[in-house]
Amino acid sequence: MKKLIVALCLLSSACASSKMYNQKVSSWIGHDVNELTQVWGYPSSSFVAPNGNTVYAYQRTAQGKVPYYTTPNGFAYGNYTFGGQSTDWYCLTYFEVNSEKIIIQSRWEGNLCK
Questions:
Q1: Which of 13, 77, 87, 112 is deepest in the core (most CB within 10 A)?
Q2: What is the largest CA-CA distance in the chain?
C-alpha cells in the first residue's frame, strides 16, 4: 500500500509539472520571437519547417544516477536494493514562428522539462 501511495504521488507531481511546463511554453503563442529570445536566450538551433515557417529549438540535457533505494524489512525474500544506474534527462522545446516573427505554435518533449 505504501508503494502505491508513493507511486501515485510521483505520478501526480510529474503530471502537475508537465501541465505547468505546457502552460509556460504555450503562453508564448502570439508573442514576438524577440521577446522570447530576451527571456530564454538564443535557441540551441533553428530550422525551416516544410510550411516555410522558422522553428526555434531549445535543448537542455543532464546526466546522473538514479538514487539507491532499499525496500523495508518484512518482504518474503528479505530486503531488495535497486537504483544506482546512470540515466539521461532531456528537454526539447520548439517554437514555430511565422513570417511576421510571431510565435504561432509550441511543442515540447522530454523528462527534464520544468
A1: 112
A2: 66
108, three cell numbers: 515540447
Confirm if 89 and 111 have CB atoms less than 8 A apart.
Answer: yes
Q: Position 55: which residue type?
A: V
pLDDT tens-digit profile, the chain (114 residues) = 344 333 334 434 455 678 999 999 999 999 999 999 999 999 999 999 999 999 999 999 998 777 766 766 655 566 666 677 788 889 999 999 999 999 999 999 999 998
57: cell is 529549438
Strand partners, 43: none
Q: How many residues are there in the chain?
A: 114
Give the Cα separation of 23 and 27 in Å (integer).
Answer: 6
Which residues have CB under 8 Å from 72's CB, separation 6+?
79
Indicate the SS3 state at residue 16: helix
Grid coordinates 540535457 are at which residue? 61
